[in-house]
Amino acid sequence: MAIPIGLALIKKQTQLNSKANVDSSGLINVKEFGAKGDASTDDTQAIQSAIDQAKTRTLTTIYLPVGTFRISKLNLTGISGLTFVGAGQNATTLQAFDGVGPILDLTGSHQIKLERFFA
To answer: Left (φ > 0), alpha (ψ -120 to 50) or beta: where does 66 sit?
Structure first.
């Protein structure tokens, strides 16, 4: 049985370069930027830092492991070719911090993908 591309990238998370927080395949793990995913911490800045790192690369994947990541607003403006990969349905959640919204600003962006968050 073939390993889906998203899972192959996730498997590579253990090979992250701690200086750059990015592995050779372009995978960025938000935990490397300080995200907790504990449903109480505001993870906005940590995830935004991962996104900002992704802006300097092409075809980057940002991995959000199991957890509930509370965010207020993420700036994805002008980004192309970015994929967010979760740990699976009901395993990874992006939750608005204190019910504020919208939580994603996609102005001028294209080819943004969300994988392994939904059924």
So the answer is: beta
For the chain, percent of residues with pLDDT exceeding 70:
77
3-state secondary structure of 17: coil
Burial of 81 (0-12, 13-18, 19+ CB in 10 A): middle
pLDDT beyond 60 at 43? yes
Q: Is the Cβ–Cβ distance between 51 and 75 less than 8 Å?
A: yes
Mean pLDDT of 52-74: 90
Alpha helices in the chain (DSSP H): 5-11, 44-54
Q: What kind and span of H or E run contains 75?
A: strand 74-75
How far apart are alpha carbons 91 and 99 in whole angstroms?
A: 20
Q: Which residues pair with 105 in a beta bridge?
A: 75
pLDDT score of 3 more than 80: no
